[in-house]
Specification:
The chain crosses the membrane at residues 28-55, 75-95, 151-168. By secondary structure, the protein is an all-alpha fold. Helices cover 59% and strands 0% of the residues.
Length: 193
């Protein structure tokens, strides 16, 4: 069995190693599917509000229409933020060079986004809202309304993530020796069992 040119010491056990070597590409594609599905929910909600003129409480995205409680449950939004953070952390060791820099940017922004959702969750659970607001409120939400803020957060996490994935598929020659997966066409021929 052929392997990529370098082996990188990865912490976290066999699962993390497998996710960042032989299963990196399918793991990235699965993660991308989750991210794009979430993005679609926010984009549909935006169309409902600004394209169709619906009131914000009535604009619940695709899944929120048949299941309105999904939009109201803060734990669900926090859960997604946590899954996103975990995905960015788990798949990070497979990135090298410029791709790693862009992936790190997405990770840092998502860490802040996760913190904001944690604040919202704590407020929802305790019934004590920041700044005596009538609803749970995040820090940046004091300046940017919630729907617009989450569109912004999803965009500024998604864009560096996509740049990272693009660069990851096209590593620079000097980074090839550190590649540990089969995502790049130059390493895909080395795929074994």
């Amino acid at each position: 069995m052929s392997t990529p040119q370098a082996t990188v010491k990865m912490t976290g056990g066999r699962l993390v190693t497998d996710l960042n070597t032989r299963y990196h590409r399918p793991a990235l594609l699965f993660f991308l599917f989750i991210v794009v599905a979430h993005w679609a929910e926010h984009l549909v909600q935006a169309v409902q509000i600004w394209g169709l003129g619906w009131a914000t409480p009535d604009a619940r995205g695709v899944l929120g229409m048949p299941f309105p409680w999904l939009v109201r449950e803060e734990w669900l939004h926090y859960g997604y933020a946590l899954v996103m953070l975990a995905g960015l952390l788990l798949l990070r060791p497979g990135f090298v060079g410029e791709a790693r820099t862009w992936w790190n940017a997405a990770l840092l922004i998502q860490a802040w986004h996760h913190l904001e959702h944690f604040l919202l969750l704590v407020q929802a659970m305790t019934g004590s809202n920041l700044f005596n607001r009538p609803v749970p409120t995040s820090v940046i939400q004091l300046v940017v309304p919630r729907v617009e803020l989450h569109l912004l957060y999803n965009a500024i996490v998604f864009l560096p993530m996509i740049v990272a994935m693009y660069l990851h598929r096209r590593p620079r020659r000097e980074d090839l020796s550190r590649v540990t997966c089969y995502c790049a066409p130059l390493t895909s021929g080395a795929k074994g069992s």
